[in-house]
Amino acid sequence: MPLPSTSKHEYITCDPDKCIGCQICEYVCSYAKTGEFNTFRSRIRMVRDHKILITTVACRTCENAPCAIACPRDALKQDPKTGVIKVDTALCDGCAWCIEACDFGAISINPRTKLAEICDLCEGEEDGPQCVKWCPKDALEKTTPDRRAQRSRRKLAREEILR
Amino acid sequence: MHGYSGKILHIDLSERKSWLESKPEKWYQTYIGGVSMATRLCWENITPGCDPLSAENPICLANGIFAGTPVPVGGKFGLASKSPLTGFIGDSLSGSWFSTSFKRAEWDGIVIHGASEDWVTVFVDDDMVEFRDASHLLGLGTTETESAIRDEFGDDQVRTACIGPAGENLGRISNVSNDGRKAGRTGHGAVWGSKKLKGLSMRGTHGVEVADSEELLRLSLDILEAAQGPHTQKYRILGTTSNVLNMNKLGLLPTKNYQEGVFEDAELISGEYLHEHYKAKTIACAQCPIACEQVGWVKEGPYAEAMSHIEYESLFALSSNCGVNDMEAAIKAITNCNELGMDTMSTGVTISWAMECYERGIFTKEDFECERYPEGFEANFGSGMAMVKLTEMIAHRDGYMGDLLADGTQRASTLLDEERDMESYKWAMNIKGLETPGYDARALKTFALGLSVGTRGGCHNRTAAYDPDIKGQVDRFSVDETRGKLAKGTEEYAAVYDTLPLCKFIRRCFTGKADREGAWPAIAKLINATTGWDFDYDDVDLIGERAHTIKKAFNIREGWTRDDDKLPYRWKHEEMTKGPSAESVVTDEELEYLKDLYYEAKGWTPDGLIPKEKLVELGMEDVAEDIGV
Asked: Given Cys at both, which of B191, B257, B307, B502 links B352, Cβ 3.0 to 4.6 Å?
């Protein structure tokens, strides 16, 4: 079986230099997905460790997603076109094997429903992922690993070579 | 009720028990939250006249109405106790994830009674209250304490407000820290320390229910977008430290313990210099899309690894006011204060008092001897090393000097003057015991009034009366009959923000205009979408008057008289010699005239007491019974 890896698919990435830790992404996410203001129910999560290390993490839409493979009830299915992981709420029993399988900590169990919740890139929203749309510092981006790498190379070229 | 749970949590540290109190909607409409509700809780739960460091002085927390919602800059809570520094109300604010956890645990307020025999932390996990041994946390700094508690639970969602060593040692200029932010002034750390309460941790898992979530989100996102524009540019780029050069230019940058208002090396301690040489990152409080906190980082040299967010008020106190032109020493001293759990402003102004005593030959090198520095050291103005050493000594009450300074300028000068027959009170820069802020009020006459009558002493944030002076709305060097109304207006304006609470840096983002006409209708909409109430301009305006009134009522019950509204000796008798603010003082005649105007504008008696009918008019009938005249 091929090893899991981050993929050709789009996912939400955060630039830690720009992220200020305000959690606006978590509020708009929890509202968009649940109608509640509850950062516990956001599918993107801010991480703050030490005084200045701040970033956010959401599903990386891995190829051969380990979470889907780990699910003993086949409740998690990956959309082959977008890489988005769909949770079948009728099958999920909140066992959290998916959480153990995810190296990014991008899955959470809703404390009320006890079901797994994962970023779906706001597939249903006309204007795309709400976290990206409302991030006040433009720290979030919907991109692919390859596009992200291209951007890093361009930045490096500008800063190091043209300097 | 929407936006509130209707529940206040009472915790008794002596008996190790907790109970719930329900409050009617009218009570919430009167006191709202933040500093106003926290003060009201203190009014209801304190034994009047008690020693602030006794079990009779409660710790009262009141959350923000907008905490845990997307309302920008609404993630703040209020903290109130009787201040061990001033003997009057100590009301503080802090922005943090602690407040959002607090909100999601579905408590509107918390009152902590009694005192523990052994060191404890209290953990509030939704509706469960647990008392936990804290002996292993003693001596830890604030960041370390918060991390250690989070590690014990293994859960980032456990957010803690705590004290550092300064609070454990009952330093009256110590404070309470949460997520790197502070309930900073009036000595809360000592109140917590006196109860052997090392920390209060919260975990909340509930969603925050509001009356109209769609409307609240829409209003919030409009403000969020406006907050990326020119209205907050100053805060986003240099943060509050941009004030260093501005104040220096106006001759108002406190220098060498307020001897002057111009610092020749201001460039070296400016926000611009910090930005260019030491800035590690800009960060935000919870729910804040502005992000004004400029984190300074010293990478090498004697202060290597010092890292803290740098605010103007911390910076003036721990650089120019100590005559220090070394940004690295300032970053180190501020880091020490924040980690050891002390008010940077009071600490800096207390150190500058000691430096002036040293320069005058009252203190000698030997007075600075302690276990840490057995030889003592020289403590002239300009010595960054002495300033940094003193921050450590104050936190731990090391030696004669650390112990003397740990309780602020008022107590230190009184003790010294008694012991050595000196007059060091003449340069002890405090009002009601609280050290003065980073604007020299000799040449800001409206501000001088606002500070002198301030309910928590020398605090710029509560009065905000520097605004008309600095903006040139009035002649800042003279007094006239408009100033009483102006000082009333600015303090009640500020009290609206401190009660909701919203950070004042958002004030221009509602409509582009920061005045009442620009802000109150927008704030009313936020309140209504959150609570389902029908607040209008006047209701919002009353929030500020009520908040200020309950604080004043608290002080009156604690024995306040007109004579308590005063200014430091230096501002009344000694002129500065340099810069555009030179040759100004506030005379006794001016101050008493200003106070008359102010009490009149407030609708109080000439003695500054509150008529019964005024209190009844504000919906505070029980307060009227107690202290109304």
From this structure: B257
- Is residue B190 domain-shared with residue B233, that is, in the same domain? no
CB-based contacts of B529, cutoff 8 Å, min separation 6 = B210, B211, B212, B213, B215, B216, B219
Judge whether residue A4 has pLDDT over 70: no
Q: Are residues B193 and B73 in the same domain?
A: yes
Considering only CB atoms, A24 lies closest to which of B208, B280, B289, namely B289
Cβ distance A38 to B288 less than 8 Å, yes or no, reads no
pLDDT, one tens digit per residue, over B567-584 is 999 999 999 999 999 999
Contact B70 A27 (CB under 8 A): yes
Residues written for chain A? 163
Q: Are residues B282 and B403 in the same domain?
A: yes
Q: Is B310 part of a structural domain of the chain?
A: yes
Q: Which of B68, B225, B281 sits opposite A52 (nearest CB)?
A: B281
CATH T-level topology, domain A11-161 = Alpha-Beta Plaits (3.30.70)
- Nearest chain A residue to B159 by CA distance is A48
Q: What is the ipTM of this complex?
A: 0.92
Contact between B338 and B162 (Cβ < 8 Å) = no
What CATH number has the domain bearing residue B379?
1.10.569.10
- Lookup result for tokens 């609470």: B501
> Which candidate from A23, A34, A51 shows the least CB-CB separation from B286?
A23
> The domain containing residue B503 runs over which residues?
436-567+587-627
What digits encode the pLDDT tens for the residues B17-41?
A: 999 999 999 999 999 999 999 999 9
Q: What is the 3-state secondary structure (H, E, C) of B76-91?
A: EEEEEEECCCCCCEEE
- Has residue B574 been placed in a domain? no
Task: Work out the minimum CA distance from A57 to partner chain B, whole angstroms.
Answer: 14
State the Cα angle at B333 between B460 and B181, rounded to 5°: 55
Q: Provide the shortest C-alpha distance from residue A80 to chain B (in Å).
A: 33
Q: Which of A22, A38, A51 sits opposite B207 (nearest CB)?
A: A38
